[in-house]
Amino acid sequence: MKRLLEVCTGNLQSVIEAVKGGAERIELCSALSLDGLTPSLGLLKTVRRLYPALKIHVLIRPREGDFVYTDEEVRIMEEDIKASLPYADGIVVGALDTEGLIDMETTRRLVEAAEDKPVTFHRAFDVCQDPLEALEQIIQLGCRRILTSGQQPKAEQGITLLRQLQQQAGDRLIIMPGGGVNESNARLILDQTGCMEIHGSCSGGCGTTSAESVSRVKAIICE
Predict the structure, then answer these.
(1) Cα–Cα distance, 96 to 53 (Å, whole number)
(2) Mean pLDDT for the stretch of residues 41-56
(3) How many helices (H) and strands (E) does the chain have?
(4) What residues are paired with 73 via a beta bridge?
(5) Which helix (H) or strand (E) holds 76?
(6) Whole-number Å distance between alpha carbons of 151 and 162
């Protein structure tokens, strides 16, 4: 299996740059300054129309702040997932309870709403309690991957936990490091964790993805 870069994109220009740089898969969201929110349906439809072969994983997060959601917020996320399904290749979600544990019921509802689309549990994982137990719960829920910095501000700082997660997950689930990933550390992170996918915005400044950065990171991780 080859190594893969997933590019985090917060607007149409970032998607355009990501594709120019050779991105095969993106996470589509909005408001990266708020750590990412659900993108508009109009943006998702436009990206799908422009790039029919591009793999699009859609972030479903209705607001900034914590990952403890009310029932009404969960209903919003279910509706957003259902609206996204005709245009998305994957869904990205995450929910915790008030104790900082994986919210099993909410996550199960969101996975069910995604139908047959692969689900990524996002960086809510990085503020959960007992990450090794949480990994088993997320596998049990049917998620296909976890996006995580290893519970550190940046993935490079979380290499020890990322390696543990990768070893425990084996081939049951993909561990995808993300957070502060760039051309200077992407290969190091993959080499030292054993992970095969990595996630970064490849920003060229002003919050927009740079095609050149995407191309360089891809080349570096595949050397």
Answers:
(1) 33
(2) 98
(3) 8, 8
(4) none
(5) helix 71-84
(6) 9
